[in-house]
Amino acid sequence: MYNNQSNPNTLISGIEKEIVQLLRKSDKKAITLLYENYADALYGVIRKVITDEETAQDVLQETFIKVWRYAKKYDASKAKLFTWLYRIAYNTAIDKTRSLKKKNEKEVQIETSTVYKITTNSLNQDVLDIKKHLGTLDEKYQIVLNALFFEGMTQQEASEELDIPLGTIKSRLKIGLRELKKIYDPQQNKS
Question: Which of the residues 89, 97, 117, 138 has an alpha carbon 20 to 30 A from that of 156?
């Protein structure tokens, strides 16, 4: 990848330094340099986790989006640039694999579906207006519940997308669900 025969380590660290400086300044040239110097290696990492070429290319793109989004969080004292990039690519590939697995597990199987066997007596009419009740909660709980239940994100994806620590996502989910339960179970308010 590098044609400098004299001292490749000097060139690599020079490129790394330039990329890190550009990332810190939010200079879009950083993405070009990252792609030119690391895309092949990161794609190789991703392909070890994801065998489908099209999905692997999507994950590579998601990786570069995450790199751009979290560029200011990179700390050279904790990891070399490639190590940081590797972790993002690998974790993104693992997350994609998990989400695809969950999606495949959730796909409706028409021949085994019981959707037409539900009687109107078994539907709780109060639950059908959940979005309305969700709007009565504090906004911080609404955002988390909406991401997890209506946008289909995992807790980790919501944490990254909303830039909220994972522990906070879990706490807000628990509190938000408890508040919704109070709306749907008035007996709980009496105790």
Answer: 138
Provide DSSP, the chain. -----S-HHHHHHHHHHHHHHHHHTT-THHHHHHHHHHHHHHHHHHHHH---HHHHHHHHHHHHHHHHHTGGG--TTTS-HHHHHHHHHHHHHHHHHHHHHHHHHHS--GGG--GGG--GGGS-GGGGGHHHHHTTS-HHHHHHHIIIIIS---HHHHHHHHT--HHHHHHHHHHHHHHHHHHH-HHHHH-
| pLDDT tops 90 at residue 125 | no
Q: Where in the chain is the domain with CATH 1.10.10.10?
A: 120-182
Tell me, which fold does domain 120-182 have in CATH?
Arc Repressor Mutant, subunit A (1.10.10)
pTM: 0.48
**Chain segment 136-184, per-residue pLDDT in tens:** 888 898 888 888 877 778 888 888 888 899 999 999 989 988 887 887 6
